[in-house]
């Protein structure tokens, strides 16, 4: 589950009071729970015990070095999408030999770097890319391990910007062409066909699309094993999390109050759904979870700067903006908002928009939401912000990147200090 709950009238992350964190380190700040990260990893790992499997954590979800190190220490492999991410994994003590390299547009430099570091496999997304990897490997006098990503044309039924497994999406080789692509790839001299990969989308809350994809693609994996001796089948990431009610969903009672059928996706239900199609393949099964591992392990803290009552609405202006957490603006993503100081029975609820300081109408964290009131100077937490939160932050409006803090039990460590505006300016060249 997760480790954020009210204790003694204040929101805690494990044994650390978030009020203290906000006062000591300032806002906006991201706070992660080490216990939740470990728990999520272990729970998925255990759910898949029936399979010869490996977890390739999707680095893009949260790539802080301390988060990667924590996962590397648990034995995780890593799914990377750039040379930069590979460099991060290595810096964090991760093993390149447990890395898969995804993405539709790998450059020559990235391919060279990944071959030199000895990654486990490139997950190629087009025949042109397979040919290019072969060429670059040849120039280096090496053989590169390659899997091809198949696009199974399955509807993941998630937001259109994070759906990837339909033919109209740019990802992978169409199911109809994949066998021919392997056939041609098998003739190339400088690659070894090591696996098959798919990923149908992100934030899936229903197991059915996963089942549909596994059922459709498993026979293909079996054929490719027979024909080309591939050793793994990666079924991608995508397991969704509960964004609402995020806080309540951390408690055992909340799960118990839902019938098995009504329960949101869990690693166990995911495993029960897909394992039957995979267990007899004789292949190593890889999964690439990002959000499931990191999403509910983090919150973003921000301070309420001003309240503005207009004719139409009440706005709470906070010190975090869409540059710090872009999910609401980009995907209409819902993040539950709770005051750090626990509301009492007397606290009135009001309908509000929580907005940031950025000069854009899309700079909001919620609109017309009924929330317990909070005052200027008080802190609030945006829950389930551990995945695709900090990593998508930018310097828009010349705002320094927020701080990141890792809580483990009763200790809190800054794992990324707040970026100063001076640091932003120093990275530029004034050609006056
Ligand atoms: N594997 C591949 C090849 C992927 O493209 C992705 C995510 C993953 C694994 C991990 O998916 P996850 O387990 O996290 O669902 N920024 C968006 C999400 C983009 C996901 C991109 N690909 C968001 O904030 O919702």
UniProtKB/TrEMBL annotation:
Keyword Lipid metabolism: no
Domain Orn/DAP/Arg decarboxylase 2 N-terminal, chain residue ranges per copy: 37-294
Listed GO MF terms: diaminopimelate decarboxylase activity
PANTHER family cross-referenced by the UniProt entry: DIAMINOPIMELATE DECARBOXYLASE (PTHR43727), GROUP IV DECARBOXYLASE (PTHR43727:SF2)
Protein name per Swiss-Prot or TrEMBL: Diaminopimelate decarboxylase
CDD domains tied to this protein: PLPDE_III_DapDC (cd06828)
UniProt-listed Pfam families: Orn_Arg_deC_N, Orn_DAP_Arg_deC
The enzyme's E.C. designation: 4.1.1.20
Coiled-coil regions listed: none
Residues given in the record as substrate binding sites: 291, 327, 331, 360, 388
Binding site for pyridoxal 5'-phosphate: 238, 288-291, 388
Purpose of the protein: Specifically catalyzes the decarboxylation of meso-diaminopimelate (meso-DAP) to L-lysine.
Residue numbers bearing the N6-(pyridoxal phosphate)lysine modification: 60
Family according to the record: Belongs to the Orn/Lys/Arg decarboxylase class-II family. LysA subfamily.
Cofactors named for this entry: pyridoxal 5'-phosphate
Pathway participation: Amino-acid biosynthesis; L-lysine biosynthesis via DAP pathway; L-lysine from DL-2,6-diaminopimelate: step 1/1
The entry's keywords: Amino-acid biosynthesis, Decarboxylase, Lyase, Lysine biosynthesis, Pyridoxal phosphate
Subunit note: Homodimer.
NCBIfam families hit by this protein: lysA (TIGR01048)
Domain Orn/DAP/Arg decarboxylase 2 C-terminal residues, every copy: 31-386
Alphabetized PROSITE patterns for the sequence: ODR_DC_2_1
Reactions catalysed: meso-2,6-diaminopimelate + H(+) = L-lysine + CO2
């Amino acid at each position: 589950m997760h480790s954020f709950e009210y204790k003694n009238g204040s929101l805690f992350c494990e044994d650390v009071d978030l009020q203290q964190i906000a006062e000591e380190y300032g806002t906006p700040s991201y706070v992660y729970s080490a216990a939740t990260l470990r728990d999520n990893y272990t729970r998925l790992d255990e759910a898949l015990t029936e399979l010869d499997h490996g977890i390739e954590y999707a680095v893009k979800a949260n790539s802080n070095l301390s988060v990667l190190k924590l996962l590397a220490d648990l034995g995780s492999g890593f799914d990377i999408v750039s040379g930069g991410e590979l460099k991060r994994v290595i810096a964090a003590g991760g093993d390149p030999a447990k890395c898969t390299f995804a993405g539709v547009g790998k450059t020559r430099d990235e391919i060279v770097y990944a071959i030199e570091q000895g990654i486990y496999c490139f997950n190629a997304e087009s025949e042109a890319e397979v040919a290019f990897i072969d060429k670059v490997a040849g120039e280096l006098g090496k053989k590169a391990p390659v899997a091809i990503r198949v696009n199974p044309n399955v509807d993941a039924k998630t937001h259109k910007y994070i759906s990837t497994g339909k033919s109209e999406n740019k990802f992978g080789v169409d199911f109809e062409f994949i066998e021919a692509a392997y056939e041609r790839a098998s003739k190339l001299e400088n690659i070894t066909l090591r696996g098959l990969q798919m990923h149908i989308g992100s934030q899936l809350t229903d197991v059915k699309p996963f089942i549909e994809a596994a059922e459709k693609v498993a026979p293909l994996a079996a054929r490719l094993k027979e024909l080309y001796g591939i050793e793994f089948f990666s079924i991608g990431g995508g397991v969704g999390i509960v964004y609402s009610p995020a806080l309540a969903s951390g408690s055992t009672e909340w799960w118990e109050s839902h019938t098995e059928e009504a329960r949101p996706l869990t690693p166990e239900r995911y495993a029960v759904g897909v394992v039957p199609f995979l267990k007899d393949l004789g292949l190593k099964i890889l999964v690439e979870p990002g959000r499931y591992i990191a999403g509910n392990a983090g919150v973003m803290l921000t301070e309420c700067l001003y309240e503005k009552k207009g004719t139409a609405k009440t706005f709470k202006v906070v010190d975090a903006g869409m540059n710090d957490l872009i999910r609401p603006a980009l995907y209409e993503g819902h993040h539950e908002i709770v005051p750090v100081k626990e509301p009492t029975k007397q606290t009135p609820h009001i309908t509000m928009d929580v907005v940031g300081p950025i000069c854009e109408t899309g700079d909001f964290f919620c609109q017309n939401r009924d929330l317990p009131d909070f005052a200027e100077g008080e802190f609030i937490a945006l829950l389930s912000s551990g995945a695709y939160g900090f990593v998508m932050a930018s310097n828009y409006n010349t705002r320094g990147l927020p701080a990141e803090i890792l809580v483990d039990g009763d200790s809190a460590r800054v794992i990324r200090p707040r970026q100063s505006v001076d640091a932003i300016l120093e990275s530029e060249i004034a050609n006056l």
